[in-house]
Every structure is written in C-alpha cells, then in structure tokens.
C-alpha cells in the first residue's frame, strides 16, 4: 500500500491523519462491522510505527466506531441502523435551524456571501456532470461538499463542527443509498431545489428543501437496509 503520510499535512499530527483514514475506511465499508483490525498490519500498510496507529484506534474507540475487546482485539462496530435513524433525526433539526432561523441568529442565507453562493453553484454543476456519468464516488464527495458549503456559510464554528461530524458518519449510508435505482437523479433534483432557494434568499423554501432532502435520504436508507438484510 502507498504510504499516505509521506507528506505531512499542515497542523495535523500523524495520529490524526491515521485516525481520519481508518475512520473513512470504516464509514465507506472497507472494514465491515465485526471485522478485526490488526494494529501491526495497519502500521505496516501505512509505513509507520505501531504507536500512532494504537493512538488512532483509541480515538476510534472513543468515537464508538470500534471496540477493544479483551482476548479478541479491536473489532469494528461501524454505524448501526439505530445510529442512522438518530443521525437523520438530529440532522434535520440542526440543519433546518442553520437556514431557517436567520432572523434570530443571522446564519446561513443571511451570512452567505457571493463567493459562498458561487461555490454552491459550481458544486451543483459538477454534480450534474457526474450524475450524467453515473460516477457514484464523485457524486457522494460533491454531496458532502455541497452541504459543507452551507455549514461554512453560517460562520458558526460550533454549528459547522457538529454538522460536519454528521456528514462523516453518514458516509456508509450515502454510498449505499446512491447506488439504489433512481436515487442519483432524485438527489440532483433535491439539491437544485436547495440551490434555487439560496439564490432567491428564501429561508422558508431553503428549510423546506433541506428537510425534504434529508427525509427522502432517510427513507431511501431504510429501503436499502431492508434489501441488504
């Protein structure tokens, strides 16, 4: 495996980078629930000593993504069906606040500048392009960037931090959901409705569009889970 850490990222420790990489792999399903993660094997794959890997696994345990079980080792927990339900429910509440209650807290639409809006448009255009190509990986990546642009526009580091955490934990479900028939085109349509509301600076319609998108995503996630059981 290519050493991913030969160019150390600014302001990120080796442990943090390893933690993020393993977390990503768990959330996209590379390490399924119940699989054992071997510390020595990871250290060899990453081309590092076992110490930062061990620390990264401790962080993953704190995040609830793995369990360190005596006499068994580190076992992947992943994201359960109940976790998915909880995340969608909480996300609806928080993300809707980020666009709807601008009168009270001046977030999202009121704080979005021209650069933020242009970035949102650019991301949507790329989503259109990759939807035509049916490139699920790129669509999932752009989906995340689209919502993170909205989070950034709130100019609230606390709101941004919470919502970005939700994005991380939804990766497993998002990839599976986008592969179900018709979901890619519906997702594009839903993001167009969100974008149009932001262009028009219509807080009520933006809130409705986001809630509709999240509810549709949740229903699709439920259907795909049923089919894969």
From TrEMBL:
<feature type="domain" description="HTH gntR-type">
    <location>
        <begin position="12"/>
        <end position="79"/>
    </location>
</feature>
<dbReference type="GO" id="GO:0003700">
    <property type="term" value="F:DNA-binding transcription factor activity"/>
</dbReference>
<dbReference type="InterPro" id="IPR036388">
    <property type="entry name" value="WH-like_DNA-bd_sf"/>
</dbReference>
<dbReference type="InterPro" id="IPR008920">
    <property type="entry name" value="TF_FadR/GntR_C"/>
</dbReference>
<dbReference type="GO" id="GO:0003677">
    <property type="term" value="F:DNA binding"/>
</dbReference>
<keyword id="KW-0805">Transcription regulation</keyword>
<keyword id="KW-0804">Transcription</keyword>
<dbReference type="InterPro" id="IPR011711">
    <property type="entry name" value="GntR_C"/>
</dbReference>
<keyword id="KW-0238">DNA-binding</keyword>
<dbReference type="InterPro" id="IPR036390">
    <property type="entry name" value="WH_DNA-bd_sf"/>
</dbReference>
<dbReference type="Pfam" id="PF00392">
    <property type="entry name" value="GntR"/>
</dbReference>
<protein>
    <submittedName>
        <fullName>Transcriptional regulator, GntR family</fullName>
    </submittedName>
</protein>
<dbReference type="Pfam" id="PF07729">
    <property type="entry name" value="FCD"/>
</dbReference>
<dbReference type="InterPro" id="IPR000524">
    <property type="entry name" value="Tscrpt_reg_HTH_GntR"/>
</dbReference>
């Amino acid at each position: 495996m290519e050493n991913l850490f030969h160019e150390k990222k600014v302001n990120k420790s080796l442990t943090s980078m390893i933690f993020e990489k393993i977390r990503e792999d768990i959330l996209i399903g590379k390490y399924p629930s119940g699989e054992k993660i071997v510390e020595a094997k990871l250290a060899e794959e990453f081309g590092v000593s076992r110490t930062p890997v061990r620390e990264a696994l401790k962080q993953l345990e704190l995040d609830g993504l793995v369990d360190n079980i005596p006499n068994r080792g580190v076992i992947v927990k992943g994201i359960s069906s109940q976790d998915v339900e909880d995340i969608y429910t909480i996300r609806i509440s928080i993300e809707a606040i980020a666009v709807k209650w601008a009168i009270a807290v001046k977030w999202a639409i009121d704080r979005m500048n021209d650069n933020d809006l242009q970035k949102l448009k650019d991301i949507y255009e790329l989503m259109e392009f990759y939807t035509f190509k049916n490139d699920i990986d790129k669509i999932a990546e752009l989906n995340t960037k689209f919502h993170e642009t909205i989070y950034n526009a709130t100019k609230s580091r606390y709101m941004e931090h919470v919502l970005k955490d939700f994005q991380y934990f939804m990766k497993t479900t998002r990839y599976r959901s986008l592969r179900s028939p018709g979901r890619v085109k519906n997702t594009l349509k839903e993001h167009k409705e969100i974008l149009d509301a932001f262009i028009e600076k219509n807080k009520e319609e933006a809130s409705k569009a986001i809630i509709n998108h999240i509810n549709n995503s949740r229903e699709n996630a439920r259907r795909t889970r049923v089919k894969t059981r």
